[in-house]
Amino acid sequence: MEADFHKKIEELIRKDGRYKPDAYEFMMQALWFTQKRLNRSAHVTARELLEGVRDYGLSHYGPMTRSVFEHWGIRCTDDFGEIVFNMIDSGLMKKSENDSRLDFQDVYSFEEALDIFRVNKK
């Protein structure tokens, strides 16, 4: 990722230290993953993005995904909404006029969505 991206992330961390820099980088990668999977180069909904976050996380971190997210300060889907809107505010992401932080509220339980054994049984 380019230096400008990392500079903006450093600024975000200074303003809002709830989440580690890796969480922001992961979110950008999860967005690209989701767009590619949906064959789209533009906007995805919060639900689509969160499904991509889940799948991308599980593909990279397996059964440790939930622990990795918690290490980054992420404990629920609402936290991903905060990260997305921090990135929107800094110009790293864009939103439609209908997008809201509420779109990320309680979309799925980490316990259910990130339990790799439960996910694989579906």
Short précis:
The protein is an all-alpha fold and about 120 residues long. It has helices at about 5-15, 20-35, 45-60, 65-70, 75-90, 110-115, 115-120. The protein has one domain.
Describe the 3D structure:
With 122 residues, the chain is mainly alpha-helical. The protein has one domain (3-121). It is 62% helix and 0% strand.
Helix content, binned percent: 55-70%
Main pleated sheet: none
Number of domains: 1
As a percent range, the share of strand residues is under 5%
Low-confidence stretches: none
Class from secondary-structure proportions: mainly alpha
Count every helix, treating DSSP H or I runs of 4 or more residues as helices.
7
Shape: globular
Order of SSEs:
HHHHHHH
Show the helix and strand layout:
Blueprint: H1 3-15, H2 21-37, H3 46-61, H4 65-71, H5 77-89, H6 110-113, H7 116-121
Salient structural properties:
single chain; 122 residues; mainly alpha; 7 helices
